Amino acid sequence: MIEVKDLHKGFNGVDVLKGISTSFLAGKTNLIIGQSGSGKTVFLKSLIGLHVPEKGTISFDGRINTAFSEQEKMQWRQEIGMVFQGSALFDSQTVEENVMFPLKMFTKKKPSEMLDRVNTVLKRVNLENSNKKLPAELSGGMQKRVAIARAIVMNPKYLFCDEPNSGLDPQTAIVIDNLIQEITEEFKITTVINTHDMNSVIEIGEKIVFLNKGVKAWEGTNKDIFSTDNEAVVSFVYSSNLLKKVRDVYLNETK
Amino acid sequence: MTYLEHVGKYFVMLGRVFKKPQKPLIFYQALLKEIEDLGIKSLGIIMFISFFIGGVISLQTALNLDSPFIPDSLIGFAAKRSIILEFAPTFCSIILAGKVGSYITSSLGTMRVTEQIDALEVMGINSLNLLVLPKIIAALFFYPFLILLAMCLGIFGGWVAGVLSGLFTGADYIIGLQTDFDPFLIVYALTKTLIFSFIIATVPSYHGYYVKGGSIAVGRASTQAVVWTTILIVVANYILTQLLLT
Fold first, then answer.
1. DSSP string computed for B103-148
2. Residue A111 forms contact with B (CB below 8 Å)
3. Given a cut of 90, is residue A242 above it in pLDDT?
4. Does one domain contain both A74 and A161?
5. Which residue from A215, A162, A230, A225 is spatially nearest to A191, judged by alpha carbons?
6. What's chain B's Rg over C-alpha atoms?
7. Closest Cα of chain B to A78: distance in Å?
């Protein structure tokens, strides 16, 4: 479980995160949602250690990441997989080299063993026969799948995804959502996804944290989000008529 | 940010750069790639420019020394001194600041804005050590050879220009080259080259690594990197000349 207590972070005198306290369920798909500028990305980058909090703690299964020694930090980093919004694949390396990179860096496996592992994860993300392609030769959805393969190649305990289906067509976005959820369940990873895709919220959000202007405004499950009367959540999640109708249908069915 | 803050941040960056590589094999692979990208791919432009600038130096010297009391061998002597002392180490370094500096800044800047550097950091990799240290070592290792080559080709270009134009004979030029040859000049030129190589590798790296924004910011950083690298080379050139030759 990931626990966050009273997290504060700001830039140039402007407070972005104003005392967030929450937790993310172990082995489940957790979502962070909120409007643009609500602090989602800063929150996610604080979780993965790219931003150092000004105040507050983040603990991973009881281990506080800001109190890590260099050695512990290195160990902890290898327990983390991250899928960036733009995939962040190394553009001079092939798909195979991208996915193999963490293995080369942190393991003493033989090249054949590394290749086996790479092929296994590429197969898991349904991306076979693309080993020798460069990222520029892949579609957006395929790049996301390579990024997921690279993130899980080290068998991480925690997977973080920053808007994994942004820029994708609705069909591919669902494929990526489902893939992340399947991987979460299959490998019992604690997954935290930063998104403002409402389909993801409804489909895969086992725990949802809603941020509004740098504070946690609401948290619950994808079932709770239909029945909440929190004004900020309702106006953000049910901003379209289609989603309002979906909500009405769901509430009528569950009455 | 004030200039002083930039200077401080630059030295903090160097502190993180000069760490033991986490995985020597990957470091050596990166080093070989940088030698190719920063060194071997600069051979063509340096060879081309050195040859022609050497020719121009000889022609200009010959055309300006038309007194019958001045021996033609002085042309070779002057060309040799100009090329070894200033043209090869300083002029070529400024050319490299433009070519290599903009390449380093734009490649690191693009990695920054596309979150590739963040991806390395999240994996637990010292990205500065992995990305910048090979560039510094490649530049320090390869640029002295490049500058020695520039010296040879510049002097050869001067000889070719003189012989083809008929302004002086090849024999006079060679006598001038052999006159009062001081090996310390080569030491001086190579010392300058090492300092300039370090500037060429680190200043653009600083601008690229810490870029914020998108593609326009990367373009702006590339321009700033070339300007600051050139300024620092010129200032360092003055200081080194003062220290080593006076």
1. HHHHHHHHHHHTTHHHHHHHTT--HHHHHTHHHHHHHHHHHHHHHH
2. no
3. no
4. yes
5. A162
6. 21
7. 6
Alpha carbon of B22: minimum distance to chain A alpha carbons (Å): 8
Question: Do A6 and A128 have their domain in common?
Answer: no
* CB-CB under 8 Å, B116 with A78: no
Using CB atoms, which residue from A49, A88, A102 is nearest to B115?
A: A88
User: Cβ of B114 and A49 within 8 Å?
Assistant: no
**Is the per-residue pLDDT at A231 higher than 90?**
no
Q: What is the pLDDT of residues B17-52, one digit of tens each?
A: 999 998 899 999 999 999 999 999 999 999 999 999
- pLDDT of A165-207, one tens digit each? 887 888 888 888 888 888 898 889 999 999 888 888 888 888 9
Q: Is B114's CB within 8 Å of A48's CB?
A: no
| Per-residue confidence (pLDDT) for residue B198, from 0 to 100 | 97
Q: Say whether both A67 and A170 belong to one domain.
A: yes
pLDDT tens-place string over residues B113-133: 999 999 999 898 999 999 999
pLDDT at B187: 94
CATH number of the domain bearing residue A212: 3.40.50.300
Assess contact for B243 and B142: CB atoms under 8 A. no
Chain A: give the shortest CA distance to residue B56, in Å: 40
Residue A231, C-beta contacts closer than 8 angstroms, at least 6 positions apart: none
Assess A50–B contact: CB distance below 8 Å, yes or no. yes
Same domain, yes or no: A6 and A66:
yes
Contact B151, B189 (CB under 8 A): yes
Is residue A146, in this structure, part of any structural domain at all? Answer: yes
∠ Cα B77 B81 B84 (to 5°): 135
User: Is A51 inside a domain boundary?
Assistant: yes
Number of domains forming the structure of chain A:
2
Question: Does the structure show a pLDDT above 80 at A251?
Answer: no
Q: How far apart are CA A131 and CA B7, in angstroms?
A: 43
For A126, the domain range is 91-155
In a domain, A250, yes or no: no
Interchain pair A89, B23: CB under 8 A = no
Question: Predicted ipTM?
Answer: 0.86
Q: Are residues A8 and A63 in the same domain?
A: yes
Asked if residue A211 and residue A163 are part of one domain, the reply reads yes
Q: Name every chain B residue with its beta carbon within 8 A of the beta carbon of A101.
A: 123
A151 and A196 in a single domain? The answer is no
Which residues of B lie closer than 8 Å to A, measured between beta carbons? 22-23, 25-26, 114-116, 118-119, 121-125
pLDDT tens string A45-71 = 999 988 889 999 999 988 888 778 878
pLDDT tens-digit series, residues B208-226: 999 998 899 999 999 999 9
Q: Is residue A236 part of a domain?
A: no
A1 and A65 in one domain? Answer: yes
* Residues B106 and B218 sit within 8 Å (Cβ to Cβ): yes
Q: Which residue of B has its CA nearest to A70?
A: B124
Give the total residue count for chain A: 255
